[in-house]
User: What shape does this take?
Amino acid sequence: MDIKNINGTVAVSPQIQPGDIEQIAGHGFRSIICNRPDGEGADQPSFQEISKAAQKRGLECSYIPVETGRVRDEDAALFGSAMDTLPKPVLAYCRSGTRSATLWSLDQGARGAALPSILEATAKAGYNMSGVVRRIANGGRTPTDTADTSHDVVIIGGGAAGIAVASSLRARSSDLDIALIDPADIHYYQPGWTMVGGGIFDAATTAKTMASLIPHDVHWIKAAVSAFEPANDAVILDGCHVVKYKRLIVAPGLKLDWNGVDGLVETLGKNGVTSNYRYDLAPYTWRLVSSLRSGRAVFTQPPMPIKCAGAPQKALYLSADHWRRSGILDKIDISFCNSGNVLFGVKDYVPALMDYVELYNAHLKFGHRLVRIDGPAKKAWFELTDGEDGSREIEMPFDMIHVVPPQTAPDFIRVSPLADEAGWVDVDQNTLRHKTFENIWSLGDVMNAPNAKTAAAARKQAPTVANNVLTDLGLGSSIAHYDGYGSCPLTVERGKIVLAEFGYGGKLLPSMPTWLINGKKPSRAAWLLKEKILPPIYWRAMLRGKEWLAKPETVG
Assistant: This one.
């Protein structure tokens, strides 16, 4: 916990944990303001968790969530109102403390406080508010006629897609001026979280510092994006800094909407409610699975599109396999509640998966969308859609439930000129170039090409985008096409995987000879690939610009 005092009435800090409340109260704070929206980070506790712990110590709490990169004047006014009414002193927090410091600075400026005093107070606390001065001076408008910085290529996002494309560009052109924008400190190998939830991987092995992965000669702009102005070739950052580009690559991933299910945020991580889609919860999945001896286990899948469409059922298979090996499978009632109407979107793999559904005696419940959950009561409610009766709500009790949240494009993408009607970045599915803005490309989970949203897809997309950007800059001679490749290693039991590899339209695209791995059948070799080979390929090849089995297919 890193508390920074701004003055005698307010301090700011990065993300706090429920376990920090005792120490916060000990420092004399009487109130807490949360400026971080729930579900923003994979390792983030909810506001309700913080509030509950604070209330036990008599601290008042206020929730003023501010989307990363979108600090509005209205948010500053709400912050000021809270400061007027809450008992002092107040601790405000967000991911890093910057949004909270920015809100305080904007509110102070609106109240007529001297700008030098604002800058001095925040600087002493370790926060540079010079960008806010520019915003106040311009009446909240951000000028784009001049830039704070300019680069040949600007990449939005430091996830798998963003770092991979940065490394592929750097491997092809050492002289290119590249900047990568991302506020996060930690990069996660999210495909490993299914294995964490199955008791196979340790969570710590799936996390590395962002600084250790971004190529050393790529400029890392550690900030959040606020908006795009593609007509001006400009990206607006939080604090009103302007970054201009010749070419832009958009790869911020997607948003996990934990608030999309009523009651979910309040009960995550307790009451038998878990999810492998969050770093800090995947170990809880394994604790639940390994301790359950009898009862009802429910696994859910939200409407598509989602990140790694096979992950919801992977959790089921690994859990059921543990119960089978422990000799208690017949004492556990397993349900897979899928809001869709098929087990897997590529029919060639369904027979092998159905064999395991039957082996584990799991009940497939299609058309079941999780809408509400009561953790303490251990009850979940699903909207059931069928062709005869329309839709209705049904109640389902559980002893443990693995929840996959609804997923959308990030807010700053959905409201931008880059988005299609559904909110995803609008690209040509072959070249991954934006359909409207010719100097913009996108890859990874955020764009709207009809491929599976997996890390394996990003591994193939990154060289394609790198090739096409360089060709557009006059540094290449061919255009590459992405074939929609995606891979989903379906962990059907400990030691065996159904390796689904496919492209656009469900076309099978195996990367291994069938004598080694027949993707339509469970395979020990595929398990070894997932457990032993893919993690080092991810860290040491994909994120380093080494395009193992990922060379782009050029068409001219």
User: Anything to note?
Assistant: The chain has three domains: 4-137, 149-254+409-554, 258-405.
